[in-house]
Specification:
Blueprint: E1 12-17, E2 23-27, E3 33-37, E4 41-42, E5 46-52, E6 55-60, E7 63-68
Antiparallel strand pairs: 1-2, 2-3, 4-5, 5-6, 6-7
Length: 71
């Protein structure tokens, strides 16, 4: 895990900007929000691979994980 103690499994998706240059706002387990673009590393050692309507795909050592937009 990263210094924040977050893992890709503990991330929460708060906002997205879908498209070829997609970005997303993710929060770690402590609730700290930050913007990420496709290809950026995320807390817990994963990489933001895709931004789709309503969800993102994070890829890491444990494989690929889809995170849905929080309601």
């Amino acid at each position: 895990p990263s210094a924040s103690g977050a893992t890709p499994a503990s991330l929460t998706l708060h906002a997205i900007n879908a498209g070829a240059q997609g970005s997303a706002i993710l929060a770690d387990a402590g609730g700290v929000q930050r913007a990420y673009r496709i290809g950026d590393g995320v807390p817990g050692g994963g990489v933001l691979r895709e931004v789709r309507a309503g969800m993102v795909v994070i890829e890491g050592a444990g494989g690929r994980r889809e995170i849905a937009l929080s309601s």
